[in-house]
Amino acid sequence: MRYVLFFAAGIWCYMVLGSRVPDEVLWGAMAAVLLLYLIFAVLNGKNKRFTFRSLFPFLAYLLLVMSGYAFSSLKDANNQADHLLRHSKIQGYMGEVLGVDEQKTSTFGNELAVRYVWTDEGYEKAHGKVLVYHRLETPLRPGEVVWVEGAPQRVAPPKNPNGFDYREFMARKQVYHQHFVGKALTRLGTVDRLSVAEPLLLLRERLGLLLERTFGDDHAVEVGKALLLGQKANLGEAVSEAYVTAGAMHVLAVSGLHVGIIYGFFLLFFKPAQLPRMKRIVYLGLVVLLIWVYALLTGMSPSVMRAATMFTVLSLAQMQSRSPSVFNTLAISALLLMLFNPYIIFEVGFQLSYAAMFGILVLQPAIVSIWLPQNKVMYYLWEITSVSIAAQVATFPLSVYYFHVFPNYFLLSNLWVIPCAFMVMAVGLPFLLLSMIGWAWWPLGRLLELLLQLMNGGVFLFDALPFAQTEGLYLNVITVFAMWGLVVCLYLWLKERKKAYAYGALVVVMGLIGTSWWTRFAAPSQQELYVYSLGEGVAVDYHSSRLSGSFQYGVAEKDLHYQVDPHRLATNMQGDFPLKFTQEGSKTRVYLPNGCLVTAREGKIWLSANTGVSAAYFDGDGWVQTPEEMRWSTKNGALRLIFE
User: Fold this and answer.
1) Where are the alpha helices (DSSP H) in 522-635?
2) Cα distances (angstroms) measured from residue 571 to each of 398, 514, 530, 549
3) What pLDDT shows up at residue 179?
4) What's this model's pTM, rounded to 2 decimal places?
């Protein structure tokens, strides 16, 4: 566990500092620290004394931090000499299709691995990934080599403060470019040899089409693809919102539940501990191979990679007839994933997956011990409930930080969804396996559809209940760690019964209350006006030390949710009252409490009196003072006007 924490600290240091430390300095410093460690080890060995007790852990942990920094630098595409970021004046490029098409609103999306670019100097080797959006009649297939006219564009930054930063999200996946190609794309052929993942992607697509042909219920198709094949991109808005509101979305993310069912299914028939050593190794090796094939088939999400890695480590231990510490197994899986991709620690799925597992391992035994019912059914239900409580307590700060909502009926919904998901997996996996060998048994498919409809019916019922979800929640990074600190103090107090932990919890609570009051009442003395940058409609916020008001008109619900609400939550200024306005065609007039009149039309903003007002626009990284020629335009980003 300590190794993982210090290695992750090195990755975080790289995200903060970037590549400011030259490679020669970094590798030289690592060599010096390692040499110093070995020198002290040799001196201790000769003297047969442990005289440098405090230096060994310091040097070891420092080396781990530097290793995390070094691995991040090696994996960073910005440091590659032939990356797309290093090329300019690109007129076209050749690339390999990496996946199957995904249906977007009006286009199809896919990912290309660029091999060559055409510039003024001719063909040049290049490296990097591009998200392409096309309107071809025939879908792109994995392994196809294509030629694309034009130059890819950098992924655009957010235009509104605190909005979802798609640029940063893709950069952590080492993708920096996107290209809307339409039909300006030519197929050149296919690669000589497909990777291991590409045939599995095609198989995944074929099994998805099988579910579409077998099921008559669209919602059953969507949930079946997500639950069995990891295709969450196909979830409709109604299904997605229902599962989020019910607190059951985690079931649709392929994770330890799914991998555990596969692992337990094969260990149900043969007990590895009872087999001879060689047979045990072969059998467990085949189980591990099957688990990773399933992980590849379902898209290799962080949660399924965590589960597959954990079961792999567990199987390796069972090959030696050992019972490893589950915490060490969890830590080893995290370390292996970070070695493969250091930036995975910033993915929401990775953070939620490990937070949930840690909560289940630590908190669940304490929670389940509170009540020990004698009835077997009640005990089974209480066990499921305790697991849900432990996972929810551990992930609550992260969930609120990223999604700003809380499902109020998560305990009841999980009592329904988890057993249903187990039955769907128990029927669905054999159905898909039989289909892969050419025998799609219709009765089994019909039973699978009925189980999915049963599960969906319960979820939609919870979604329809009053007060199903608490919205408008906001936590910053410091508050997230403070909430975890509160959980730790309460857990230790319940376990150790020491007053010091109770006092610690009280201090954290008082700190959270004080921070909340300070944020609420320490409003700026100046008057501020925010005008959001949107595709359609107008959204305005006005704030002063005494009051605040908000206004929106003609804004799509999706834009309001992702572009406007995050900033309102972050600033704790949702608006005490709606601002008055008038609408004349495409021109909107908003009346401010200070007597000013704001006129908005096609992204241009006018004030009735623009004297004594300083303006800034949001460029994706922060607020920038506006040049005079674009002072009242939201084309480049949201506007912030301060009345002086």
Assistant:
1) 557-559, 565-570
2) 19, 16, 12, 13
3) 94
4) 0.82
